[in-house]
Amino acid sequence: MKKIKKYSWYIIIIIVGVIDCIFGFVKLYQKFDFIAKAKKTTADIYEISNNKKNRVLYFYYYVDGERYQGMTVTMNKDIDLSDQITIYYDKSDPSIISSDEIAYFEYYAIILGGIFILLGIGLINKTKKLKV
User: Which helix (H) or strand (E) holds 109?
Assistant: First the structure.
């Protein structure tokens, strides 16, 4: 019981890392699954909002003659107002969209989770070696 208490913080770090990795993989799978099942169209960008790392793109797109609005986040600095982007929409509800612009959130979650897992394992190993 004493050993489990000694390593409890390290185990919590590992568990947080595993949860973070699972979350990242699930979100990534959901995005790719949606894109695989969705229909594709082009959208015209009408506004771009910049912050430190990302750009928010606001756009119009048409499905069966009806106009819809949408937005996406991208790290791509090469997109201008006159450009078009590819978006994917749900066949049954065209207002549900995704784009192939990647904000890298899912990848960051997976990498951060991996770092937590390695950190927790490393701390456990280091603590074991110090006691031997």
Answer: helix 105-131
For residue 63 the two structure tokens come to 């499905």
Question: Long-range contacts made by residues 90-95, C-beta under 8 angstroms, separation at least 24?
Answer: 90/34, 90/38, 91/37, 91/38, 91/39, 94/63, 94/64, 94/66, 94/68, 95/68, 95/70
pLDDT band per the 50, 70, 90 thresholds, residue 98:
confident
Q: CA 68 to CA 43: how far, in whole Å?
A: 9
CA angle at residue 33 from 31 to 36, to 5 degrees? 110
Q: Grade residue 101 by pLDDT with cuts at 50, 70 and 90.
A: low
Residue 67: the pLDDT is: 96
Name the pTM for this structure.
0.71
| Count of Cβ atoms closer than 10 Å to residue 25 Cβ | 14
CA distance 17 to 113: 4
Mean pLDDT over 32-57 rounds to 89
Nearest to 72 by CA among 106, 105, 98, 35: 98
Radius of gyration of the chain (CA): 21
